[in-house]
Amino acid sequence: MVSLASEHGTDTVPVLTSAEAVSVARRLSAVFAEGAARRDAERILPGPELDELSASGLLAISVPAAFGGAGLPVATITEVFRILAEGDPNIAQIPHSHFVYVNAVHHQATPAQQEFLFGEVLAGKRFGNAQSEIRSKHVRDHATTLWPAAPGRWRLAGEKGYATGALFADWIPVLAHLDEGGPLHVAWVERTAPGVTVVDDWDGLGQRTTASGTVRLDDVAVSDDRITPYHLTFTGPQTYGSFAQVLHAALDAGIARAAIRDAAAFVTTASRPYPDAGVERAADDPLVVHAFGEMELAVRGAEALVAEAARAVDAANEHLSAESAGAASLAVAAARAATTHASVEAASRLFEVCGTRSALASLRLDRHWRNARTHTLHDPAAWKVQHLGRFAVDGTLPPNHGQI
Amino acid sequence: MVSLASEHGTDTVPVLTSAEAVSVARRLSAVFAEGAARRDAERILPGPELDELSASGLLAISVPAAFGGAGLPVATITEVFRILAEGDPNIAQIPHSHFVYVNAVHHQATPAQQEFLFGEVLAGKRFGNAQSEIRSKHVRDHATTLWPAAPGRWRLAGEKGYATGALFADWIPVLAHLDEGGPLHVAWVERTAPGVTVVDDWDGLGQRTTASGTVRLDDVAVSDDRITPYHLTFTGPQTYGSFAQVLHAALDAGIARAAIRDAAAFVTTASRPYPDAGVERAADDPLVVHAFGEMELAVRGAEALVAEAARAVDAANEHLSAESAGAASLAVAAARAATTHASVEAASRLFEVCGTRSALASLRLDRHWRNARTHTLHDPAAWKVQHLGRFAVDGTLPPNHGQI
Amino acid sequence: MTHRSNVEALYPQIAEGALRRELDGELPTGPVKRLKDAGLGALRVPRESGGDGLSWPELVQVWIDLAAADNNLPQAFRGHFAFAEDRLWHHRRGQDQSAWFARFTAGEIAGNAWSEVGPTPIDSQRTVLTAQADGSYRLDGEKYYTTGTIFAEWADVYVRRTNPHRPEEGEDDFAIAIVDTRQGGVTVVDDWDGFGQRGTGSGTTTFENVAVPAENVLPFGDRFPYQTAVYQLNLLATLVGIGKAALEDTITAVRGRERNYSHANAARVRDDAQVLARVGEIAAAIYAAEAATLRVAAAVEDVAAAAGADGASIARLNETAEVESAIAQVVVTDLILRATSDLFDTLGASATSRAKGLDRHWRNARTVSSHNPRILKSRVVGGYLVNGTPPPYAWAIGVTQRDAGTAS
Amino acid sequence: MTHRSNVEALYPQIAEGALRRELDGELPTGPVKRLKDAGLGALRVPRESGGDGLSWPELVQVWIDLAAADNNLPQAFRGHFAFAEDRLWHHRRGQDQSAWFARFTAGEIAGNAWSEVGPTPIDSQRTVLTAQADGSYRLDGEKYYTTGTIFAEWADVYVRRTNPHRPEEGEDDFAIAIVDTRQGGVTVVDDWDGFGQRGTGSGTTTFENVAVPAENVLPFGDRFPYQTAVYQLNLLATLVGIGKAALEDTITAVRGRERNYSHANAARVRDDAQVLARVGEIAAAIYAAEAATLRVAAAVEDVAAAAGADGASIARLNETAEVESAIAQVVVTDLILRATSDLFDTLGASATSRAKGLDRHWRNARTVSSHNPRILKSRVVGGYLVNGTPPPYAWAIGVTQRDAGTAS
Description:
Chains A, B: Belongs to the HpaH/HsaA monooxygenase family. Chains A, B: This is SfnB family sulfur acquisition oxidoreductase. Chains A, B: It comes from Nocardioides fonticola. The complex is a heterotetramer, with 2 copies of chain A and 2 copies of chain C. By secondary structure, chain A is an alpha+beta fold. Chain A folds into 3 domains: 18-122, Acyl-CoA dehydrogenase/oxidase, N-terminal domain (Butyryl-Coa Dehydrogenase, subunit A, domain 1, Orthogonal Bundle), CATH 1.10.540; 145-231, Butyryl-CoA Dehydrogenase, subunit A, domain 2 (Beta Barrel), CATH 2.40.110.10; 236-394, Butyryl-CoA Dehydrogenase, subunit A, domain 3 (Up-down Bundle). Chain A has 11 helices and 7 strands. Chain A has helices at residues 18-42, 47-56, 74-87, 89-93, 96-108, 111-122, 240-269, 286-318, 322-354, 367-375, 381-394; strands at 145-150, 153-163, 171-178, 184-190, 196-199, 213-223, 227-229. A 7-stranded mixed β-sheet of chain A has the order 5-6-2-1-3-4-7, covered by helices on one side. In chain A, a hairpin with a 2-residue loop joins strand 1 and strand 2. Mean pLDDT of chain A is 90; it is low at 1-9. Chain C folds into 3 domains: 3-109, Acyl-CoA dehydrogenase/oxidase, N-terminal domain (Butyryl-Coa Dehydrogenase, subunit A, domain 1, Orthogonal Bundle); 128-222, Butyryl-CoA Dehydrogenase, subunit A, domain 2; 227-386, Butyryl-CoA Dehydrogenase, subunit A, domain 3 (Up-down Bundle). Chain C has helices spanning 3-9, 11-24, 29-38, 56-69, 73-76, 78-92, 98-105, 227-256, 273-304, 311-342, 360-369, 374-387, and strands at residues 110-113, 128-131, 137-147, 154-162, 173-180, 186-189, 202-212, 217-219. In chain C, helix 6 (78-92) packs across helix 8, helix 8 packs parallel to helix 10 (311-342) and helix 10 runs antiparallel to helix 11 (360-369). Chains in contact: A-B, A-C, A-D, B-C, B-D, C-D. The interface between A and C is large, with 47 and 47 residues.
């Protein structure tokens, strides 16, 4: 049951309860799943699907209740992400930075900015992202700068890559130095503002329709009221990183589940039994069943860790301390590492259980592996394992930054 | 804080809350851990430790509140098991059948029998087990029989193996046919009753001090009021199997955690760094840390699945149906398979991270692998995977029996 | 100069174009032509007949290195090497094969046309060779997965032979027809739609009233017995070559990486212990896979060298070769698939660019290994070891007339 | 009759007693005696000197099969084969070694005494060989992990050599002393307390004022260069032999299992597809491990055969052998450890009986592989491939005087 948030007028999206959010996500996921293979094959960007997602209210579920939003817990947001990703992980990835920046507004913006930006979200607007710079040596170096133009006015110049979501965004939050070499801030620019160009030049082997292209900022005018402090200053305990990461984990968990689903559909309808197995259906071959069991086991383990991590982020949000934030980061690290492994593995073993015919390119069954392989490289899973290891050996808590 | 259940008089054990149970388990686990290596080396049976366990009230936490017990949920019982197993999995395994038979009394005994047997448990008495027969072809064939002696009186004859806990039990529930080839029942005999012999002939490579020996029943007198119907008739949905299995899973999860703990203690105090690693401490070698991370990850995944499974059993107990019981069985199957893998793997990789010196026999560090390898063969993990696979392929729910 | 050294001299040039052909979906027609001219098809032909007389381990090493240059090529020549081995087998058993050896040394090759997927029931073939009144034959039918035939002068076709002119000669039987693909009526279409091994030329071949002289019709029962092992060995060598190419690409990419994670163990990725360890693991997997594959080649050599032995000895050696190829498949598949997927763990997000094509190694390996699912092979191996159950195909050729088209 | 065939004839008898010796904690003194008498120690001695002249791949196959009979034995002879190889190396480089070859063919062997664990700093040795006024030497000190020395007539001891009589000859240097263990002052204690490889005789050897004639003192710098690879190869062969024994035990146990799980795929365990598949996987792992190990043996053969070559060629071949042994270790360790632990998945709870001793395979493999942690070797391999970093020990012997005692 979706209730309309009538107090915001007819222009606002529905405000959902946790149960509603999960049920709406399930419905949309099933719809998105139908077109996923074709969109991957023909590289059709999911514009209408994103509009449907916005209209459903799912992109507003993290707006705090104080601002008229649903204020749903991380546990629900994570589960919604996982469900959407099972349908089409490209669509699920696009609003990832949207949720991250809603979170940033919650923690870093002024009340006036919050009122304005949350209002935009409740009105169905989307936030993109323009953060990484491709030419930098370290992943977290930045050259984009807000140059002073007049008192309270700036002009933003630079170029950003891997800008997932920017193409479909209404607002693009851009990470930039405030004046040359100054502190990092976020400049909020409208997608349609003069000087903003979004180039759809993303050509990855997977996650092909995420439109994770390049954002060029050519002296874009920005005023003070559209600049927020960089939410990644990490001067104290935070869950900014663990929140962003648990959504990534949920996305890979969704890919893994989709791989099992498609494998089961193929085996029960299209696979021929191996002549020597002595069974009528490939689905009755105990070794095929065993392989499915191993895949199911890995994916359930990953799902359990994602749920556990989301609860840990909620718990840290409730009582924030170095310990609770560290525990959340470790729980999220485990979820990321497990979902990385489970998604790549399930998507690869799909072919082991389905047999020769599943390798036909027209079926696009390899998209699960390509999607998993691409998205799991977002930041290195090996480092999640390293942080878990440091904790296991010495009890060392992970570092305080945005990637864990 | 442990409160005494004064309404049962001074002879009863404390009735614990969930939080108390976990905290008492932690305290006892730490104590048990100290002597674990020596008991394994010299094969010293943990008699005093079991008495301490009984006195603590932990063995009474599953007695229903209606009978004056704590009536704690499966989630708590499972966590208590896991914690105790981390200290010494031999001690944790001994009361496994105790909990299983308390559960059986709850579901299958008459109110009078419940009053009596629960009273015994609240008084600190322990239940053993005499179920498997070694000479049978299938694991679940039985020859032990209650022969009619007089109206309402029977004599019990047979031999049982792998009778974990029987040696230390006050009451031994014996699985037997009621008359030749008759329906299976449970005969409750006192450990000290005439005709009952318990032989400590267990000589496994691991779990060496569980006293899982042979029970001989030589015309033991049993009256009607000490006979309960076989709780494993499985005519309808049940959680008997999933409850027993989730405790097994918790035990292996405890072994896995203990292996990581001992590995970390060794690496941080006794391992020499590899000369080429260029680090001062072995614990700072990134590859050692990475291996720890992988172990930690596998064990966290297993722990998460155990917790998830325990909650699923609680949920099925609340609303029992074929679907909820099947879901619990599948969740438990995943927990069993994951804990099997994680415990064997962590206990084996311990040596990879610790280096040559950890292979000294006197350290008994191989006991973790021997314990895991022995206990995980209790029933085959491959079958847990098979049931998960059947569900993943076809949505088939697992069979309705006591091993899943 | 041996044929082998001529062939090996082509590798760098072939390797250079492999990624481009992959991205453009282009068949390796040029490389195949140059390899034919260099004498790849004559490597097993005896020296006295103008070949190199390579042993099986030597040939398999060539396959592996060729697959490292371009994953498609050994598979494109698979049918040829099987047919050439059949000729060599009969040469060793005393039949004159000089005409064929001359063709092979002149650069002619054969492709495979055995499979009929779809509705074809076991033990029947819809590709029919019809005896003519003059003793010659005509061939009609359609074959799928005719790997390499698009590049070949000859097609090695598994057929049902019928003789409407002499019904008294009994029921139809199964035979091998060697068909000149250069004549009218033979059409090869590259309709292979796999997501890997795209350049193997595994298309569909159609035969319409194609003439086959009687001397090019061979009794099925005379086929060399270890064809199944040779087929598997070709796939194993391809997998290993894919692994080697993947390792090479990984090393190059790691050397070129500049950005490292800020909490990493070392400033340069190439000094990071975790990254190096992962590269080491990938290399080790490929080392063992190559060793296992060459060991299977030695077992195949043993049966190939026993052409003159008694039937029981041949059967025993053949069973060994067959079992060893199955054993190796279980472990090699696992090692290579893991290596081609794990290589991404040493690289950053930029490795996922389609233009770099680093996913092709996994796609190729996945496609090769889908030919015979590893999980089913492991049961065959276990059954042989525990119960002595012979592997299913060791006895399939030359003994029964079971559908040999599945023996790929 | 070759020495090899005499040795191989002993395997069944040795295998029969292996489990009992393991359970009783008994050293394999009898088997070692019989193997010495059969000529195991002379397998690499040239034929013209009364040996078998085996190549390295042939010797390694003997090691593998011997380890399958009793896991301890190849390791117990490891020090001997290293010392014998040093003699063979010098023979090939033109030194007369006939006296040693005669001892080896007569059944005398050498044990190893190189390690000093504990407080010994790198590049120093507390075992001291003191020159006497008459030019002979006296040896004092204590060595740990002296594998095989308890069974041996000779100890191959790494020492610091000092000459108090002639301080003008400069600082102490490092040398090899070959000590007759049959004289007074040499004490060997079997104090090895590992949970695996219990019968390797890896104890402590003490030398108290032991006489060493000058001709038995060898300059450390002259040691044959590929000792590290030989040591690794011995451990690899042992691992593979352990794996083969484990597979054999598994197959026997599966055949003997009667009780099956009631929802199983088949009435008899031996017909259960899952069980057979797991057996197949174990067999495949061992097949690849054996193939990789024999491939390393071929690389060691290459350097051994190059005794007459120039220094640069030797160094290059030695580096290859070293790197290949490290590569193989990464993958073989993983394959064998997994196989010896996974075998329980094919068996029931009764397999955990201590009397059956099925855990010994894992305990033995775990102990062998703890000698050189796999995770560290993988980094060495990766560093070599990516950055060309030479493996740490390839240059350790004969070039620098780095503590060679760690090269085990």
